[in-house]
Amino acid sequence: MAKATEKEPKQKAYDASSITVLEGLEPVRKRPGMYIGTTGVDGLHHLVWEIFDNSRDEAMAARCDDIEVALLPDGYVRVADNGNGIPVGIHPKTKVSALETIMTTLHAGGKFDNDAYKVSGGLHGVGASVVNALSEHTKVVVHQDGGMHIQEYKIGKPQAKVKKIGTTKEHGTIVLFKPDITIFKDGIDMSLEKIVNHLRQQAYLVKGVRIAIYDARTSSEAFETDTLFLRDMTLDVPSMTFYFEGGLKSLVAFYNKHQVPVHKNIFYVDRELDGVMVEVALQYVDDITSRITAFANNTYNSEGGTHITGFKTALTRSLNTYGRNANILKEKDENFTGDDVLEGITAVVSVKLPEIQFEGQTKSKLGSVEAQSAVGTVFGEALGAYLEENPDDARAIINKVLIALKARKAAKAAKDSVLRKGALEGMTLPGKLADCQTKSAEESELFVVEGDSAGGTAKMGRDRRTQAILPLRGKILNVERARLDKMLASEQVKNLVVALGTAIGDVFDLSKLRYHKLIIATDADVDGAHIRTLILTLFYRHFRPIIDGGFVYIAQPPLYKITRGKAIAYAYSDPEKEAVLKEMGVAPTEVALVGEEDDAPVETEEEAVASKKPSKANVQRYKGLGEMNASELWETTMDPARRVLKRVTIDDAEAADRIFDILMGSDVASRKSFIQSNAKLANLDV
Fold it and tell me: In this predicted model, what pLDDT tens digit does every residue of 378-387 receive, in sequence order?
């Protein structure tokens, strides 16, 4: 077995001869999705990640310790670093500047030369050229060897040769680009929150590197400066800076700031084995959800990969070995399973290796086989030593996993009972469910409605062929911290689980989903919002693939019914109500609010005709679905031709996870702080 060793050998200079050319650039504009995944919001931000990653790779090669990312007016993004600077010398094969080669040729970059970059996030050498091809305008300024060099491009085409424009004492690269609106048709406005979250994460992953972010989109300052860093200018714009020395240990502490730790010390290892650098940090918390975040060469792997396989295998083996040796796991006890040891864990696994294989350009899953054995060995050895050296922490962890084992067995019995009753006792569907006639899941819709009253109205108003109704009585169980056995003991939750048809837990099967539209329909008040949040918590924690598949929707019933004579209109917001009244030609004095005791008498159409005055408009504010009659509910909320539905998506799973922890967990102080900080954003019906 190879022995784990410490860090990194010296690397040769990065110059024009380091650039390896494979070839190509027009295909990028024709099929951008092949290179950035999508031309939607994620693809737009992927442009920033590609340019930032080049700066970050300089930092990983110990040639850079300062990076700035700035959002500028008119959709521009500026990324600067104090690395060596992109080489500007003539490339021996292309006979043009290495800078132009990198920016205009697919598969050209320093990442193919392991002497120039021992480790990098770049794989295909397409990052900078793809960003250039998909940008309306790009400008690169290189500070290098006492000279300042510049080249500009339009939709990937150089406008002139690389030109020296002055002298400099700095070294580094500035990339300024404006995404092409003809490619990103949904708009080119970047999300500051998305950028902050991503770059904060990167600052944890590259210890000792300063990462600054500026939001200068509304500034009137001129940013066509060739000064390397914006901090050297006097700018009055919002900014923030990240700098961490603790690495992944600090990142785990950040993830767990709203949690109650099970053990005091955060486990941490950072070693190299057979050319693979392995960094792992973990801590168990008093929760039932596992949170494992994976990186390869500092690129986030949302789908995990071989390094996570190695981590899970070593974790299960190490805890079983320690539990047996310490006599905490008795002879009669069964071994911990992979699910047992993952309950309540927060872990970050990062590997860095020279020859890296991802599944696709978006790098969501690591495929490098050597990462599995390296992580398994390094992490397994270090965790064994940690457990021996920290007996209090070890006992706390093993006891936590023991509880998970017992709960798993109880949950399996409860789950089997539910499934067995459904299959053997003819109770496949709950009695409250009014099912639809079609057996096609693609056509079927399930309305999950609040209360029996709304359920009764919905049953009368629905299209029986395709629409099923399941009323829920009151607030369902908060499943954020509830185990499966407790969940299935709740009649409301059990009814919903059985109605979905997918089962739950380790036997969950998305292909058995009985409805391809799950529509949550609750009242437009605080209680309705709470019930909706509880249902979404259930889906997020236990039916995540249903959300990821795009099957979950939120109904948008109208807030107002507006009638004037024989004219009827519905409004879904206060501005829409005002617009409807204006369109009807109704003055403020001609509005009658239905249901208020001090309202003036409401004129009928006949009275209006007799008096030759326009009739008043009746405005009815709906407090709940039960206030509508069946035809109104169908017309406004259920009719596929006229209704408004919001599809539930998870753009940032980690952020969503933290919000669920705060709002639905047991940390009252964090929840209070969150509510106070965000109260001004809430739209409450009081």
Answer: 999 999 999 9
